[in-house]
Amino acid sequence: MALHPVLHTVTQRIIERSRARRAAYLNHLNAAAQQGKVERAQLSCTNQAHAFAAMPDNVKIHLKEAHRPNLAIVSAYNDMLSAHQPLEAYPAWIKEEALKAGATAQFAGGVPAMCDGVTQGQPGMELSLFSRDVIAMSTAVALSHQMFDASLYLGVCDKIVPGLLIGALTFGHLPAVFVPAGPMTTGIANDDKAKVRQLFAEGKVGRDQLLESECQSYHGPGTCTFYGTANSNQMMMEIMGLHLPGTAFVNPGTPLREALTRAAARQAAHIAAQGENFTPVGRMIDEKSIVNAIVGLLATGGSTNHTLHLVAIARAAGIDINWDDFDELSAIIPLLTRVYPNGKADVNHFHAAGGMGFVIRELLSAGLLHEDVDTIVGRGLSSYANEPWLDNGTLKWRPAPAVSGDDSVLRTVAEPFSADGGLRVVAGNLGRAVIKVSAVKPEHRIVEAPAIVFNDQNDMLAAFKRGELERDFVAVIRFQGPRANGMPELHKLTPALSILQERGFAVALVTDGRMSGASGKVPAAIHVSPEAVLGGSIGKVRDGDIVKLDAVAGTLEVKVPAEEWAARELARADLAHNQFGVGRELFAVFRESADAAEAGAMSFHHPLWRN
Fold it and tell me: What are phi and psi of 179, to 5 degrees?
């Protein structure tokens, strides 16, 4: 199938826009590569002796042989978080398989992994976005010893995978294989969980019932099963060719999961160390790979957080994308999945119905993905239209199902859930923002109502509990951007806004903060840029101003005469309470240097990564 003309046009525009930065990035890669040598060959004998002094003798022998590749393991393991707990066993498996493949492997370092589910609505959430940059930096520390010829990255959730990939691209002369843990098995129905949350918000059930419901939903090892940022990460790694095919949504604790992890180690050895199959990640991930990631996000109704993370990831590879690219592609990419919060199913249901192999084959057949890309298994994305299985204990791949196992969850390009990807850019005198409409009913996509302005999400919740929000309104919640307080997710607001919408009120949210992949049926214009702290017009809104959020026309307007709007002073807020406690004082440098949301909210000052 010929490539869709819009996909071609957007890709070419990105290539041209990125030409100078991408060339400079690739020059840095060339300078970092040690042609014909393993990485540790440039180290002195003393350097090397320090690096493998603690290794077992059978590993140390191989590390002394300068022709054998050595694999880095960089892991986000901890046993508090369900998504990362399964990673505990992976390093031993990887080391065993590396030796069988004629290589060695060392645990190079760990990176932090925090959970937005634990910190949601809490002060710790203000560290969340910038933990991505800390993870990238931690990855750099792990790889700075220059002992490694390829890397395996073990991570799953929201900021962890983007941070690992930014770090990997900083060491882009090394191959990179991403190794997921998979989703936990299915718990209670998502609708049931959401209903209990709403009842609790209305004071109709107690905290004991709420906790029991949540524990039945989040109940075992693995990723949360709704289609939020964590599972969007796994989709993205697969469609970018950084996973083994079909790896994303295999449950932990299964023979297939272990077989795939072991195979990932063998594949890392296969593409390492300047051999015939040498696949440095910085060359592998190019403009077409990044466009494929955007397409996958749109086709599956993925997390709005990736309008930040993908921009940052692309910049780490010398590639310049922006929200207009997302918006233009969204108009032509059909929505092929309905996974909670965009439907009732979870990712296990999606995987069983045909999963990523089905989605990739459908998009390729319609000319909506670039097939001519490099992956960790070779040239061409067609390999990812397959799924793994065990044939009497032997790992094999077969074509993904030809027919969806459940067309309420997964559909073809010919009969999609909607003709577009459901992610829009809205713009006007309030600034630029993004809105995810894939879960928003058509009748709720245009809201025109008086503004009620808050500078803190807790103030809005307090007003809701006092019964002051029983009316049509647009909640404008500002001073939530990267420079203000680290841009926390405001998902804590979802139950209250959902209740008001269900009571028949026209409600919407406008904020310079984030929602998440869990954002759902209430229209929310998020990531408003510029943010209030940087002089954005969101700082001019006053209570009672008529705000029109039109996700159909793509506008975000305050209906105030232009002269009055121009003359208004910007609001100020006391942000002192956001600067201390739960480690926030240590993150001041990130807040002070963060880029705008559309630029990826990056805190790094490398010339290739800044506007």
Answer: -125, 105
